[in-house]
Amino acid sequence: MRVEPAAALVGDVAVPGTKSISHRALLFGAIAEGETEIRNIGWSGDVESSAHALRVLGVQIEDGDVVRVQGVGIRGLRAPEEPIDCGNAGTLMRLIAGVLAGQDGTFTLTGDESLSSRPMERIAAPLREMGAEVETTDGHAPMTIRAGRALRPVAYQLPVASAQVKSCVLLAGLYAGDGPTTVMEHGAHTRDHTENMLRQMGARVQASPRQASVWPAERLRPLSVEVPGDFSSAAPLIVAATLLSGSELRIHGVNLNPTRTGLIDVLERMGARIAVFNRRTLAGEPAG
User: Fold this and answer.
1) Strand partners, 252
2) Could you give the CA distance from residue 88 to residue 11 in angstroms, rounded to a whole number?
3) Distance from C-alpha of 241 to C-alpha of 273, rounded to nearest angstrom
4) Taking the mean position of all CA atoms in its chain, how far away is CA 206?
5) Pure H helices in the chain
6) Which of 217, 156, 225 is nearest to 196 (CA)?
7) Tens digits of residue pLDDT in 9-42
8) What does the pLDDT look like over 126-183, one tens digit per residue?
9) Domains of the chain
C-alpha cells in the first residue's frame, strides 16, 4: 500500500457501527420478545462470534442490510450439546455469561488462545455471589455455567473499572429475585451502553456516574435500531483533518457517548475547530 501526502481532507464520510453496541444489539435482541431490526451493524470477527454463539443457543439471525434477530424471550436460550465458541470476543464472553446465569441448563464458554488467557474470575466471582454455579479453568476460559438456580440481587463493588464486568452483573440482575442489583464503580466512569439499551427495551434501570442498578424483568421489548458510527474509527480522521490546514471533513452518524469522546475535548483545548451538529439519539446513545 502506498500513501501519498495530502494537502487537506475535504468531504463527507461515514464509519462502521460501533462494535460495543453491535454486540449488545444482537445479544439483547436475542432475549427480547419479537423481532429486533439492526441497521449499520459493525460486522467484525468479534461481532460475527456473537452471531454464531447466539445461533448455537437457538436464535435465528438473518443477515442483510438490516439484520433481523428473532428474540426467544428472556429465558428462552437453549443449552447446546457442544461448547459455545466465543472466538476472540471478550465482550461476548463476559456479557453472555450474565444472561446464561439466568437460563436453564449447562453452558460452557470457550475461546481462542488469546481469549483463554484473559481473567474470567472477574465475572465468575459476582455471579457466584448471586447464586450461580460457575467454574473457570484456573481463572480463565473454558468457563462452565450450570444455570437454573434462583439468582439473588446484590450490591457489587467493582474491584477494577470494567464496563464488561458491570454489564455481566447487571444482565444477571434481570433474573435476580426482587432486585435491585446494583454495581458500584470507583475511579473511572465506565461505558454505559448496556444501561442505555436496556432502558430502551423497557427494563427498569437507574444510573449515575458511579453507580448503576437494574430490576428483574419478565420481558424485554424488541428494538429497531441504527448502530451509531464507531468513535474509535472516526478518531484518526478527526486528528488528520485537524492537522491539515484547509480541511473541512464531515463524519456522519458518529456515537457521541461522553464516555468515548475525550479526544474531542483534548483537541479543542489544543485549538482544534470541531463542530458537532445534527444531534440525535441512535440505539439509545447520543450521536451527531
Assistant:
1) 14
2) 35
3) 10
4) 18
5) 19-30, 45-56, 90-100, 121-129, 163-173, 193-200, 231-243, 262-269
6) 225
7) 999 999 999 999 999 999 999 999 999 999 999 9
8) 999 999 999 999 999 999 999 988 999 999 999 999 999 999 999 999 999 988 999 9
9) 10-15+228-287 (no CATH), 19-225 (3.65.10.10)
